[in-house]
Amino acid sequence: MTGFEKFQQKVKDGILSYMPEEYQGAMVDIVHVQKNNDQDRVGMTIRKDGQTVAATVYLERYYAEFPEWISEQTVFKTIAEEYVKAQAELSQIKTMADSVKDYDSVKDSIRVQVVNKEANQESLRHCPKKEIEGTDLLAVFRVIFYNNRGKECASALITDAIMEKWDTDVESLYETALTNTVVQAPAQLNSMMSVFFDSEESLAPEEVFREEGLYILSNPQKSNGAATILYPGLLQSIAEATRSSFYILPSSIHEVLLVKEVNGMDTKALQSMVMDINQNEVEPQEVLSNQVFFYDGKEQKISLATSPEETKELAGNMEMASAGYGGMETESMEEMGR
Asked: Which stretches within 185-266 are classed as H helix?
């Protein structure tokens, strides 16, 4: 039994001692939930007698974030407090989720999310999706829920079963979702350097690439910001304003990085950097792609920056490096930004 498995069992056996009185005698379960990139997450549910819907609190972060010298009691108390909050919010969300069956009541809350095609074959098996031409990505659709303060608090992935109830097709769903996403999560451009200095004033397209370095494309929420690459005319407006083509580096599902095309740029080095960061710095469920994309301003289209053969070679090098057979030397984002 691993350390994390022992932690799960301790939580299951002891959490009720830290829950409010009404939870005494409730059923505690450890559950496995499939997230983006087919990642398995371990959660805990507490179901009172007669309760039909129970919140899920994921345990990985508690196991990873609390130092060993923190007492078990402190950890359990924190989990219990956050569970009570999650359950209260879930009750509100459940009421909203019941409205999903009615398309007219939720159509303004549908948004686009961009995810990796290969990594989500299982989790998206029964979901509507649209391939993004020239990439290894898919556009999928989520309904956004808001709390009583008007803030986004949760979302639900739209399934084929839901879409059938709505009597709509993928293209219509995509058009509606993209229109909503552009308005509700507008594109935001920042230079990497400005973020380092805690200044995130948004840039206009013509201000991009004025200086060498990386530029961040996301949204004000910093959530699922990679979808901005789909916004009608956005990439082309950058290309025309800067009179340049550029590379798109998938930083995560929440943002992408843009770097101007210059003579002699090593696209394999760019991809090596993306692959290394995905492997070592990005949460598995937030990885977008190991590819690098190229936006051609003249052709007005996006494509893969490297060939399948080059990608396979780079992946092999990464595996060898992980196994200890020497390694690729990849530049950091700071170095790329110089």
From this structure: 192-196, 234-242
